[in-house]
Amino acid sequence: MQINQKKFLCLSLDGASWSGFDFLMKERTLPVITSLVNSGSYGSLHCMLPTFTYPNWASFWTGENPSRQGIFAFNDIGISRGLLRKVDWTSLKSPTWLEQISNNGFKIISIHAPLTLPPPQINGFVIADQHTITTEDFIYPPDFAGILKTRFKELHLPKAEQFFPHGGFKDSSDIDKFIEDQIWSIKQTKELAEYMLTECSWNVAIIHLFATDPLQHALWHLIDPRHPGFEIEGHNKVVKFFKELDSIIGHLIKIANPTAKLVFSSHGFVSTKRIFNISRALAEAGISRRRLFTRKIVKPENILLDHKALYIQNKKFGNGDTANKIIRAFERVRDPESGSLVIKKAWHARELYDGFRQDGWDVVILEFNEGYTSRNGDAESPILSDLLKPGKDYLIGTHTQTGVWILSGEGIITQPGFDASITDLPPTILTYLGQKVPTRMDGKVLPVFL
Ligand SMILES: [Zn+2]
């Protein structure tokens, strides 16, 4: 097949999980997803630790583990001149398959895909992920911005924790408004995608729908029927969102008319048990940090906290001693209510993932037992949060390592329940496109082709 005969559509649903989708599919809320599942190969997607979007999208773009591609959480530890900054496209330490196919003549559309800021200068059109940073230069090529401005007066850019009302949900009308806002967000992305899929010439289109993530953080108790806070009236409200999401997926597939389509997520969701306060845990372990992460300045004595990762400058502390001390202390912390351990394992990144490239740093990655998550926190607050209140707090759902993947189309077999790793997706996409799979990639080509 010639390049121009292939059309590969990649739809990313931030944080989609079978644990939520199974129930929604059973009650017929997701007819399009159900038909994709019935006509293609699908399964659980084993994602990278820590369970955040950025390290996982870095692995999706490069086919490599976080030690190799260099992104562990939200901040870049490839620090230059002592300044700490958010991760972006320039933080990637390995080549991407996006650039590979672009160099080989494929035309690409990328809409809000994580890490695409500054937008990579590829053969095609990029509307960056506006999640990390504020800048005007989020569209490539730059003159495409003018075209979009005439078509869309204002471009909707999905934001982290978008639309959470300040001070929390006060009553159910706040929740109604929040759900409407998430529906509005995915509709905006749909409008933009519809325009670009029809007006731009393309072979590979990547579209990221972000609102599933904030919605599931705030309202997981209304999605998962096993949650003690589940109630049917609230559930019917979130069903409205998922029906809209499903119909948008169907609509985009219809418009794009791809030869193959991939639906995936870079992490899943579960009910939150409690939130672990890293700053307090460090203080209790007798480890002091002389500079705080929030001051953005990195000095040799720093330990930087990045949610489920810690970066320790080991030239000062020497050969992992501080990291080992942190690991031993953190792995002992128990939830006083259940008595169970909060952290399943605290890893040296260099032991968890081979090819570690952060010279002069130890990176500790926290693998939590299911339902526990962390905040950088402060040393005065309790080490574990109180139980969160469904309908009031925002972190009722938290990330797990298990996402979803569904691949269907011409030449793709029907195969249920096939588990894959997120690093398997790039070699599989490249193979579908008839491209060479670089040997540096960690994943394998999924056995999905006829
Ligand atoms: Zn999230």
Describe the protein in words:
This protein is an alpha/beta fold and 450 residues long. The chain folds into 2 domains: 307 residues, Alkaline Phosphatase, subunit A (3-Layer(aba) Sandwich), CATH 3.40.720.10; 101 residues, no CATH class. The chain contains 14 helices and 19 strands. Strands 7-6-5-8-1-9-18-2-19 form a 9-stranded mixed beta sheet, with helices on one face. Strands 12-13-15-14 form a 4-stranded antiparallel beta sheet. Strand 12 and strand 13 form a beta hairpin. Helix 7 runs parallel beside helix 9. The longest helix has 28 residues. The relative contact order is 0.21. It binds zinc ion.
Task: Briefly characterize the structure.
The chain is of the alpha/beta class.
Give me the secondary-structure topology:
Blueprint: E1 8-13, H1 18-26, H2 31-39, E2 41-46, H3 53-62, H4 66-69, E3 75-80, E4 83-86, H5 97-103, E5 108-111, E6 124-127, E7 139-140, H6 142-151, H7 172-199, E8 204-209, H8 212-219, H9 232-256, E9 260-264, E10 268-271, E11 275-277, H10 278-284, E12 303-305, E13 309-313, H11 314-317, H12 321-330, E14 343-348, H13 349-352, E15 361-368, E16 373-375, E17 397-400, E18 402-409, E19 420-421, H14 425-432
Parallel strand pairs: 1-8, 1-9, 2-19, 5-6, 5-8, 11-16
Antiparallel strand pairs: 2-18, 3-4, 6-7, 9-18, 10-17, 12-13, 13-15, 14-15
The structure holds zinc ion.
Zinc ion (ZN) binds at residues 15, 213, 217, 399.
Keywords for this entry:
450 residues; alpha/beta; Alkaline Phosphatase, subunit A; 19 strands; 32% helix; binds zinc ion
